[in-house]
Design a protein that fits this description.
- The complex is a heterodimer of chains A (about 325) and B (about 250).
- The two termini of chain A are about 30 Å apart.
- In chain A, a hairpin with a 2-residue loop joins strand 4 and strand 5.
- Chain A folds into two domains: about 220 residues, Rossmann fold, CATH 3.40.50; about 70 residues, Alpha-Beta Plaits (2-Layer Sandwich), CATH 3.30.70.
- Chain A has eleven helices and 14 strands.
- Chain B has about 250 residues and is mainly α.
- Chain B has one domain.
- In chain B, helix 2 packs across helix 6, helix 8 packs antiparallel against helix 12 and helix 8 runs parallel beside helix 13.
- The longest helix of chain B is centred in the middle third of the chain and has 28 residues.
- The two termini of chain B are about 35 Å apart.
- Classes of the chains: A alpha/beta (about 325), B mainly alpha (about 250).
- Chains A and B meet through helix 2 and helix 3 of A and helix 1 of B.
């Protein structure tokens, strides 16, 4: 649905986006992560045709964003950062205006406007002027605007920014639901959002892609991912430690707490042998008639990955 | 309606709604009427003229529009920059030209309504005497052209800045320059300085072409002058909007 090839953007001497390439298919929700100033918004503005790229190519559907902007823009619903709105219009007036610009008229327009107001729970404020709305409602009005034409592609710059926890939850659920039949790309700072809504995530830093994969794949990149936390009782601790270290699948053992008949710590397995190592530990302890009080393969945490990747590359 | 006309009309409609949903347009129109009628009757001595005409009214029009048109047009693009809605507008599946023309038309409608509402003066002179209504009509066309030319100039300036105040003041000064360059005192001063310079410069002045038209001599060159200034300004607006994004 969206193909981005070697995309670059320079603002004078400053390079905002450097040689960015990725692809997004229908049915995918792509989370766009990165520290502030990483080039997320700039990239989204180029995809939506607001900023012309310095180099590279963006295709939406079959339309090239630079060569046939009107065709490309017709396929994209866009929620810009900070949810800009025309303050003098009412919610309905604003949505009608956007609907007409998107080529809807008459009954079709009314139906589309009413549908997007339903999706974003705006029916109660439809006749209210936009500048009297609270931040959450303003945000949802702009969100509704992006959905009016039921576009094949949704591009959203921090869609949950400024919402309360319930609204955030709702927006994520909405994104996940719509993601089944659309191609969605959204940026965020909130990592739990990526796990909650995305089928794939890209981390960019300094205008370049530094990681690209499913949330699970990314989590495995965290330091400590795949390590095994354990607690054993009922067998002598010192012997257990050296025996565990001797297992073929184990590379080392870090002990946190050692008593006479109790050992707690973390096993670092050999590369890619996490499952094997936990099996070996289980078998060893049961062969010695010990009591395995805890055995857990640690998942990486996305914010650890984020911090490690983006800190090293800045 | 084809899609171009429909998009332009959508923009025009929305702009007009914005104008009239705030007091801005109402206040401006009332002030325009007070000023234009006040000047014509008090300083222009409209009623003391021995012949029935609106010459006293048309005399002050360019000067009033010099302030009025920038006040009407200052928000056209500055407001979009300020609210951040430019990003929304420029990612809609329309050509930037639709927005440029649509906004210009909406502001022109304000100028048109303002002039239309001066009809009591026209009724008065027709009641008191027997004016040449052809000349009056030509005067109104000239006035409208000056108004929308100043609007087009204001549009260029407001595309440059997010501050309405800045766009108002800068546009006002440019419009003033476009009048002054045809003002007899300045023209003769320039002629004294370098022979023929004043005459050349005055050919570029709005005032020169306006005066020709209000005499009732509708010459196509004068109309073409106004239309080409407008066309150039709209083009310049498009260029500015594009380079501002790049």
């Amino acid at each position: 649905m969206i193909t981005v090839e070697n995309l670059s953007k320079h603002f004078g001497p400053k390079v905002a986006v450097k040689n960015l390439s990725f692809e997004l298919k229908k049915g995918e929700v792509l989370g766009f992560l990165g520290p502030n100033g990483a080039g997320k918004s700039t990239t989204m503005r180029m995809i939506t045709g607001y900023l012309p790229p310095t180099a590279g190519k963006i295709t939406v559907g079959k339309a090239d964003v630079v060569d046939s902007p009107v065709e490309a823009k017709a396929k994209i619903g866009y929620l810009p950062e900070n949810a800009p709105l025309y303050s003098e219009l009412t919610v309905q007036g604003f949505l009608n205006f956007i609907g007409e610009l998107r080529g809807l008229s008459g009954a079709d327009r009314d139906k589309a406007v009413s549908r997007s107001m339903d999706l974003c729970h705006l029916q109660g404020v439809r006749h209210q002027s936009v500048d009297t709305l609270s931040k959450g409602f303003r945000h949802r009005t702009c969100f509704a605007q992006a959905l009016i034409s039921d576009p094949e592609v949704l591009v959203m710059d921090e869609p949950t920014d400024g919402l309360d926890p319930n609204q955030k939850h709702e927006v994520r659920a909405l994104i996940r639901r719509m993601g089944e039949e659309k191609a969605i790309i959204f940026s965020t700072h909130i990592l739990e959002e990526v796990e909650a809504a995305c089928s794939r995530a890209i981390i960019i830093s300094g205008g370049e892609v530094v990681a690209n994969g499913t949330p699970d794949q990314l989590k495995k990149k965290a330091k400590g991912a795949g390590q095994i936390r354990f607690q054993v009782a009922g067998i002598p601790a010192s012997a257990t430690k050296s025996d565990l270290e001797g297992l073929a699948s184990v590379s080392s053992v870090d002990v946190n707490l050692e008593e006479e008949n109790m050992l707690r710590g973390v096993v670092v397995p050999k590369e890619g042998q996490s499952a094997r190592a936990s099996e070996d530990i289980f078998k060893y302890v049961s062969s010695k008639n010990g009591l395995l009080q805890e055995l857990a393969v640690l998942e990486g945490r996305l914010d650890d990955v984020f911090r490690e990747i983006t800190e090293t590359s800045v | 309606m084809n899609s171009t006309a429909r998009h332009i009309w959508t923009i025009t409609k929305k702009e007009l709604r914005s104008y009239f949903s705030t007091p801005l347009a109402w206040v401006l129109i009332v002030v325009f009427l007070l000023l234009s009628q006040g000047f014509a009757f008090m300083f222009g001595g409209l009623l003391e003229y021995q012949n029935a005409s609106l010459a006293a009214f048309f005399l002050y029009i360019p000067w009033i529009f010099m302030v009025f048109a920038p006040a009407v047009g200052m928000r056209l693009w500055s407001e979009e920059h300020r609210l951040g809605t430019m990003e929304l507008l420029m990612t809609m599946p329309i050509s930037p030209w639709h927005a440029i023309v649509g906004k210009f038309l909406a502001a022109s409608v304000i100028i048109f309504i303002s002039l239309l509402l001066t009809f009591p003066a026209w009724i008065t002179i027709n009641w008191l005497g027997d004016p040449d209504n052809g000349i009056v009509f030509a005067g109104y066309i000239a006035a409208f052209l000056v108004g929308i030319t100043f609007l087009a100039v204001t549009g260029v300036i407001s595309a440059l800045t997010r501050s309405m105040v800045v766009s108002f003041i800068v546009a006002l000064f440019i419009c003033m320059g476009m009048i002054m360059s045809g003002w007899p005192n300045i023209v003769s001063e320039l002629d004294n300085w370098i022979g023929g310079l004043g005459q050349k410069v005055s050919q570029l002045s709005v005032l020169t072409h306006y005066n020709e038209l209000t005499k009732g001599i509708v010459v196509s060159t004068d109309i073409i002058f106004f239309l080409s200034v407008i066309g150039f300004c709209l083009y310049l607006t498009a260029v500015i909007l594009k380079t501002k994004r790049a």
